[in-house]
Amino acid sequence: MRIGVLGTGNMADALAGHWVRAGHEVTIGGRDPRKAERLAARVGGGAKPAGLREAAASGEDVVLAALPFGAGADVVRDLRASLDGRTLLDCSNPIGPGFRLLTDGAPSAARQLAAAAPGAHVVKAFNLCHEDVWRMRPPVFDGRPLSVPVCGDDDTAVARVRQLVRDTGCTPVSAGGLDQAGLLESTAALFITLWVGEGADAQAIAPPQAYATGPAPRG
Ligand SMILES: NC(=O)c1ccc[n+]([C@@H]2O[C@H](COP(=O)([O-])OP(=O)(O)OC[C@H]3O[C@@H](n4cnc5c(N)ncnc54)[C@H](OP(=O)(O)O)[C@@H]3O)[C@@H](O)[C@H]2O)c1
Questions:
Q1: Which atom of ligand 1 approaches the CA of 71 most closely?
Q2: Cβ 158 under 6 angstroms from ligand 1
Q3: Could you tell me if residue 25 is inside a domain?
Q4: Domain assignment of residue 92, yes or no
Q5: pLDDT tens-digit profile of 136-184?
Q6: How many CB atoms sit inside 10 A of residue 118's CB?
Q7: Substitution site in 8, 11, 130 for ligand 1 pocket (most atoms within 8 Å of beta carbon)
Q8: CB 3.0 to 4.6 Å from 110: which of 155, 181, 201, 212, for a disulfide?
């Protein structure tokens, strides 16, 4: 795939690394050309440094928005002409001080990106784990690959993101349309509250799948 990355920070670094190793053509776009050059060199695999506009234009298959929630919609609005018909992958977490959801009562961050670039097909994924988990090769725990929920409305866009999830060594799971993206953002806020705020094991809050609809029938 031809992938454009908007941002030169931690998530851009963690995800682009997997994707160049999987053989994708990646362009790293930053507002600071030196940071784009440094990250492209670090990621290797022929990744090219660019400005934000050039990266958006080069992401013919997928454009990753690896930007803070506060900046994402403005950056994407500015690039919207280049994003028409594109798959726009949103990994953002609109979380503020006290692990508060900054979108409370407003559209999800993913919906706000979609409103800023109405011609783009926004897909939400990769927001639930820390950057260092995404850097793992692969993110496998107790022999089980990490499952990554993916939300989006466009089948082609969702299929591309599912492939990018597999390229990180994870397993994609369908989490519904883009209307469900706010649930992934709230889940991130809950997980961070449990992990960081309470020192609790977020993984332990759900029963095994066999118990999803109640206790297993007794034999
Ligand atoms: N880090 C994690 O563990 C993690 C995990 C899951 C999801 N996320 C989400 O992923 C997104 C990116 O996080 P990150 O950790 O990669 O952030 P980061 O390391 O701070 O990188 C953010 C990038 O966005 C750029 N940027 C900021 N404001 C901008 C603006 N107004 N115009 C253009 N570019 C701008 C920064 O450019 P400069 O360097 O020039 O400032 C930088 O390249 C966030 O929404 C975050 O919530 C993060």
A1: 31
A2: no
A3: yes
A4: yes
A5: 999 999 999 999 999 999 999 999 999 999 999 999 999 999 999 999 9
A6: 11
A7: 11
A8: 181
